[in-house]
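Person: Please comment on this record:
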Amino acid sequence: MSTDSKPKVQIVASGDLRLSANQVCWPAQAETERGLKAALEAAGYAFHRAHPFKEDEGHGFISSQKEGLEVFRTIDSFAPLIVVEAVWQYSHHVLPGLTTHMGPILTVANWSGQWPGLVGMLNLNGSLTKAGVSYSTLWAEDFTAPEFRENLRTWLETGSVSHDESHVTVLGNGDLPSYVKAKGESLAVKLKREKAIMGVFDEGCMGMFNAIIPDHLLNPCGVFKERLSQSALYHETTQVSDEDAWAVRQWLSGAGMTFYTGRDPGTQLTDDQILDQCRMYVAALRLADDFGCSLIGIQYQQGLKDLLPASDLVEGMLNNSDRPPVTDRSGSRVLYEGEPLPHFNEVDECAGLDALITYRVHKELRQPVESTLHDIRWGDPDRSGTVEDYVWVFLISGAAPPAHFIAGWKGAEGLRQPAMYFPKGGSSLRGISRPGEIVWSRIFVADGKLKMDLGRATVVELPREETERRWKETTREWPIMHAVLHGVTRDQMMARHKSNHIQVAYAEDAKEADQAMLIKAAMAKALGLEVALCGVGVEG
């Protein structure tokens, strides 16, 4: 059968907003598309790209919402459509068109640490879920694998493909022990009564529609947004004195953090970049105090990236209890003394609400209060033979709290953020997460309501050589966590999780982690969220 006579499947590829990222990432996307094309042709279908390679720009991605709208005007709304991703992508480039597409939709991702199509796809899946758009999803290390091709054929013939989600248990009213339920409900009642302010420095980072909680869903939890502008953060940063900035830098050096600096600001981390980040840290705390915020999120990626070094060092410091002290402008009062000011990376409000709930629960239980989101970046078997379990690479794009690192601040390192994404540079706050027991979770919007998935995991310590391999396969400038999920396989996690982000927090031991997980579940449920335990039960 000739290609012309085969039924066509339309293909689109969402990309970054930044030209440099699209150009660097295009070869990986092209290779992934070649693999998908071969799989489609083996199934008797033709691969039809719905938008061309752009010779003048050197890539074939949809690179803006405007372009996405134009592409979807030319697409047959009733025909099968595949969104194939080998890299990080901005979901809003294609989301408007997908919301009105009448034919079956399939999202497909490669499985690579270096080229995080799975990260981009998980964000798109979460956005489609929030928007109420029906879709199926597939991922594979190798598109010639029999399982992938069988699943692809099922979708081509039926318009849908499903995955095992037997690890998910939605909690009913009587599923939690009475003492757990009582503790969670008391924390929820206190939050609803006293209320909290979430400071949002510009909403909607990188097209992450799934990361925005509508006010009518957030407010009943007792949390209200203070919508702040990054221009206010920029201005406040310029008002911070050299003396205050140097005090932060000296504290970091005294705590044992190592910065790898050079003289070329275009490619290396410089002292001036670090000092500007120290100014932003002071500014963020003062603005948060001005508006009475219990937590804040900085968008950074667009707009602020053209004015200041990356915000990541700031974010990692804010999420740590042990951090440089900052006073108000008069110098009379230390702000948020002895506690973190929870920060939700990339203004992911779902992660922000999660961080606030985590902080309240862990503080009440006298467990470590530091939490952070990570990207579900990749996973791979441990090649050192240290552990038999499948080991996920959780890798936040710049900073995690040093309380999570082996050796704390002494294990913290500052490397220049990649120039492809961060033209003004700035230090990351990277380290290797210490071995221990964690609770993982994700809040997301589905069916018009807030939901939370949560479960348990163990962070394992791998030989340095294996850690370095994993860093080289992903992004070496960023903090890394080697996580083994309890009762959840790789494919179950991919099938269920509705975000590229996952929230994590440590507990002192397994028993305390189990208790923290259940009380967190109880608090979230009392706040009105639909809660599901993943891979674990309520015992313990």
